[in-house]
Design a protein that fits this description.
7 helices, 7-stranded mixed β-sheet, 216 residues, single chain
């Protein structure tokens, strides 16, 4: 783990995701979290304080080899039990239909093998489970979208592989989910290239067959 990924990027991530404008969207998205919960991409642990009071244990997947100081502080301050698995979402070690709720907030933008990761998420989610997501993505205004496409390579280099031009809704539908509910909007005070948001709930699309079995 290099100096940038260990010290600089966690600071960048904290400054970019722990902003006041995202507090209420996080609370809304996480309000329906229930049962056994899997969070994809724990980052600096910003979601912890926004889960409903009844949530005591959260299983998280985080590729960073070491939790940042921000994440450790939030675990200590909330008192919630966090079971950390150091790996990427494309290699989930859990059995089929293990989780009632899967959570992703500002994470789908940065997973490199995104199609594989979403297939794994679909596999470990119960058939009646819910995928709760808060993601930024491709703007519906073509002129803004063109700038997102131009700046995407730079964004990836500076922000840990984050893409400006992904659509969470389209990615989920392509991976065997159906969008049960979604609210899309421009985040006030943010440039269009960063601030087109989707708050949604996805479920397994039963018309697309059963999820693949767990890899050996």
């Amino acid at each position: 783990m290099g100096f940038y990924s260990r010290f600089v990027f966690p600071w960048v991530l904290e400054k970019g995701t722990a902003v006041k404008a995202l507090r209420e969207p996080r609370r809304r998205v996480l309000a329906s979290a229930r049962g056994r919960i899997l969070e994809i991409g724990f980052g600096t642990g910003v979601n912890l304080e926004h889960y409903p009071a009844h949530v005591e244990i959260i299983t998280v997947v985080e590729p960073a080899l070491e939790l940042s100081k921000y994440a450790r502080r939030r675990i200590e301050s909330t008192g919630r039990k966090v079971e950390v698995h150091v790996l990427g979402a494309e290699e989930l070690p859990f059995d089929n239909e293990s989780f009632d709720t899967v959570v992703s907030t500002l994470t789908l933008c940065s997973i490199a093998p995104i199609e594989l990761a979403l297939r794994q998420i679909r596999r470990v989610m119960k058939r009646d489970g819910r995928f709760l997501y808060l993601e930024h993505g491709l703007h519906p205004n073509p002129s803004v979208a063109r700038w997102q496409n131009r700046l995407d390579p730079l964004q990836q280099r500076l922000c840990g592989g984050c893409h400006l031009n992904r659509s969470a809704n389209e990615l989920l539908k392509g991976a065997g989910f159906r969008i049960a509910a979604v609210n899309e909007y421009q985040m006030p005070g943010m440039p269009g290239i960063f601030g087109w948001m989707a708050e949604g709930v996805a479920a397994i699309d039963e018309t697309q067959g059963a999820p693949a079995a767990k890899s050996p």
